[in-house]
Amino acid sequence: MVAQWWRNAVIYQIYPRSFADGNGDGVGDLAGVRSRLPYLRDLGVDAVWLTPWYASPQADGGYDVADYRAIDPAFGTLAEAEALIGEAAALGIRTIVDVVPNHVSDEHPWFRAALAAGPGAPERARFWFRDGSPAGEPPTGWTSAFSGGTWTRVEDGQWYLHLFDTRQPDLNWNHPDVRREHEEVLRFWFDRGVAGIRIDSATMPVKDPAFPEVGESADHPFLDRDELHDIYRGWRAVADSYADGRVLVGEIWLDDPHRFARYLRSDELHSAFNFDFMMRPWEAKQLREAIQSTLDSHAPVGAPPTWVLSNHDVTRPATRYGRVDSSFGFNAKRFDTPTDLARGERRARAAALLTAALPGTLYVYQGDELGLPEVEDLPLDALRDPMHFRSGGVDPGRDGCRVPVPWTRDGVSYGFGDGAPWLPQPTRWGSLSVAAQDADPASMLTLYRSALAMRRSLLRGEEFAWLASAEDVIAFARGDVLCVVNFGAEPVPLPGHREVLLTSAGLDGDRLPTDVAAWLRV
Ligand code: NOJ
Questions:
Q1: Residue located nearest, by CA, to atom 11 of ligand 1
Q2: What CA–CA distance (Å, rounded) separates 152 from 103?
Q3: Pocket residues: Cβ below 6 A from ligand 1
Q4: Within 13 Å and on the Cβ side, how many CA atoms surround 372?
Q5: pTM of the model
Q6: What is the pLDDT of residues 325-359, one digit of tens each?
């Protein structure tokens, strides 16, 4: 059904800066994306989600938006964005764009006007400007998501709030302009044919205007505040005013699955990323628990579960699953963490089949279909991520999962473009390129293509049932297709079946080896 297309869609995440460079300046762009749309059609995706493509000083990879109605000149023009949306649609691919309600760039005209206008001026009321203590302390001692404090002092002595980088001032969602502007931005992009909006930092935009310290009052002063739901009801009304299934996808990091599901009520967001599943280690018990709790929390609100292995913020699965601690945590990221890459790749292949078999929406981050590892030895002077710099250099940051995609075996940037890429690529990139994997039946790319094609033809419904299995095995049925994954140290017998449809690595006779997934038909 067209209106519910997202319920079992495969959504491919494009980080435009690193996907494909059409003009040879070393930075990915819309011309590059347009030239690779046939690749995405052949991969078998239903939609693309592009991280912010708007005009931006790129202090946080575009999550610092200076103008929502303009494309960053490094990426192209509005006309090219419109062409991209149309060309993708012609290939059966919908387009989802990113909107960042929590903050804007310090170069956004509103923030410039606020700075120029001075303390007490109405222009400052769209942000959170406050006086500090007489002793020169900021208004609160909150910690930024990028480490350090959340307030920066301006020349006239006032402080402004930023939950992320200094260059990302937080908006005041009690201000009517802020609400109106965002609803207009949604319409602006829906009118240009986008099928959905990914909502950045969706639990953070509303603040307690009394500015208590964290823990001082019953509610958190800036996370998951109740007032958010009314804002998203307004957004849902905008989305629903278009007849053909426009969707809202929330970036919601919350530990409590029931608080999470509140955002997915039928008059709020359609869907949200499943970070609980993404952060779990490669252990059957942990992942089984995450799958069950996901199904349990989504069913009452009728929202489709989503399955996410990575994105532009987190360690690539091929690396993460090769570590002793294979869970993901922002605070745990360190340089020089020992990694068994062969094991990581084997598990990432199995994880691809596990997630592709689950009911709901599947997200694939660019390059995961090639099994790209995290690049952990980037020269320090190449790093760009404020998360790295604000941690005092302790956190390696997120550049390692943003290294430009390799398309060809060799060439100046392995086919990414004609110029030196904005982040250097490892020499291994050629052997991981699309060209190297394209015709190789054993490649990760071939595995993804096969899995997505089979998913499309065989796993259409939402039915799901656990199968009895050993503790170290995850096994479930989707109608007459079974998915079995062995996390244990020893091979296990396969359950009865008529046909082996797909496996992530070779079988051991009729036994499933360690870290291998199989799809079977009964
Ligand atoms: C979440 C985005 O995914 C991340 O890349 C960004 O840095 C923060 N939100 C702030 O916008």
A1: 63
A2: 14
A3: 60-61, 63, 100, 164, 200-201, 251, 312-313
A4: 32
A5: 0.98
A6: 999 999 999 999 999 999 999 999 999 999 999 99
